[in-house]
Amino acid sequence: MAKTSVKINVPDPTRGKTRLTWDSTYEWTVKFFQEHPELKVGVEIGVAGGQHIKALVENTSIEKIYGVDPYCGDCWDDMKGYFDLDTDYGGFDGLYVEVKEMLSVYGNKVELIRKKSLEAAPEFEDETLDFVFIDAAHDYENCFNDIGFWHHRVRKGGYVMGHDWDHAGYPGVQKAVVEHYGDKVIGVPGPVHVWYVQV
Q1: Which of 128, 116, 173 is nearest to 147 (CA)?
Q2: Fewest C-beta in 10 Å: which of 63, 113, 180, 192?
Q3: Above 80 in pLDDT, residue 135?
Q4: What pLDDT digit, counting tens, does each position of 172-183 carry?
Q5: Distance separating alpha carbons of residues 99 and 83, to the nearest angstrom
Q6: SS3 70
Q7: For residue 39, with 0-12 CB atoms within 10 Å meaning exposed, 13-18 middle and 19 or more buried, which class applies?
Q8: What's the Cα-to-Cα distance from 155 to each of 20, 32, 124, rounded to whole Å?
Q9: Is 74 helix (H, G, I), strand (E, B) or coil?
Q10: Could you tell me the CA-to-CA distances from 168 to 33, 138, 162, 178 in Å, in that order?
Q11: Which whole-number Å values give the CA distances from 88 to 14, 82, 93, 196, in the listed order?
Q12: Is CATH 3.30.420.130 the right assignment for the domain spanning 17-198?
């Protein structure tokens, strides 16, 4: 008997905008994780429209990724140019529901945690993650704190990574990363804008 293909109608919370904006980043991170198949379990801090998680789960051997994002106004000041939250989604609750629905097709491979970075970090024991990807608030103080909250959750040999390296709009990110890691960090300039360090 011939197999029937079933098309699942998955919503796109970014309406195509964000996916196109960060294609270079997603292509680079997908390749990085394909070259490091030992990285199985990790956390992304700052989920936004969920397209980065979607790209990673569909194209790499990651077995579990937690997405941490509070979906609240005071945490999203620098995202206002990418999302018209009220018009498109009816606010943060609407966007969260749509992202959750979009990622639900991956079953237990993806788990969203609707909390701030500081609140979510204690839910993970030290050295239990293979990687953390930090892409939340892009100011110096928040980025510096996010690295501090999450660095010790990553096992020896794993990676702490993040977005917006060498980004003219967010100079605080690079400053915070260099203060933590000095010359151990590897930065990939635009249009990729990714930084990473092996723990």
Answers
A1: 173
A2: 63
A3: yes
A4: 999 999 999 999
A5: 13
A6: coil
A7: buried
A8: 33, 18, 12
A9: helix
A10: 26, 11, 16, 16
A11: 9, 11, 12, 34
A12: no
In single-letter form, the type of residue at position 37 comes to P
pLDDT 10s digits, 48-104: 889 899 999 999 999 999 999 999 877 666 666 666 777 877 888 988 998 999 999
Per domain, the residue ranges of the chain are: 17-198
Query: Tokens 């980043």 belong to which residue?
Result: 25
Higher pLDDT, 29 or 10: 29
Tokens standing for residue 63: 């077995």
Q: Give CA torsion, residues 36, 42, 48, 51, to 10 deg.
A: 40
User: Which tokens sit at 193?
Assistant: 């804008």
Q: Which residue matches tokens 């917006």?
A: 164
Residue 35: Cβ within 10 Å count: 9
Name the β-bridge partners of 186: 196
Q: Which two tokens stand for residue 161?
A: 């990574």
104: tokens are 């639900």
- Residue 95 DSSP SS3: helix
Residue the block writes with tokens 């980004």: 167
pTM confidence score: 0.90
Q: What's the pLDDT at 49?
A: 87
